[in-house]
Request: fold
Amino acid sequence: MKYLITGANRGLGLEFTRQLIARGDQVIAACRNPDKADELTQLADSSEHLEAVHALDITDPDSVAALAKSLENDNVDVLINNAGRLSRGGSPNDFDFDEIQGDFAINAIGTLRVIEAAMPALRRGKGKKIVNISSKMGSIGDNSGGGSYAYRMSKAALNIATRSLAIDLRPEGFIAFVVHPGWVQTDMGGPNGLITPETSISNLIERIDKADMNDSGQFIEWNGNRIPW
Reply:
């Protein structure tokens, strides 16, 4: 199987890359600054299963177009949209609209840019799976804490977009779903996270491997539980 992973230079994206190439899958990795992605570069130097590392800013149409160009003669079985940003967005007394727009640009709109760019390669692939990394913080039903307007709103937007993708692409055999990786000990999740990247990603890979049409359009936790919208 061949995977395309965004945000592959650190955290969950890097762990996805590590585990997938370790089991013999082919990976195309993308991140904003490959020149600064030392761990990813080391993986590329040591494994033939990491096919390429692309510079990709998912908020930049020209950068995404360059990715599409690089894939025009390639195939991709699974797209993992991992690139993301976490901002708070202020409070009802003082919203930070720059933060809110920034999270939307990456977490929602940027992800759609990547999906559009990768669609021809995904159509040529056999897996036909689109996996968008979301968060419980994007669940309306699970929101009991309030706050975090930027992140919550952008992930909720990603969730509804994925549900539409699952419906629109179902006739072609595509499986599209969102996953919550858990509160993970990464730069984004912080040191107080409840699980390690290794645990989160090994479970998510199992979810992706087993995903079928019953999972398409669903909101799935790293441990397999369904999350309310």
Notes: The helical segments are 11-22, 38-46, 61-70, 97-124, 149-169, 197-210. The chain has a mean pLDDT of 95. The chain is about 40% helix and 15% strand.
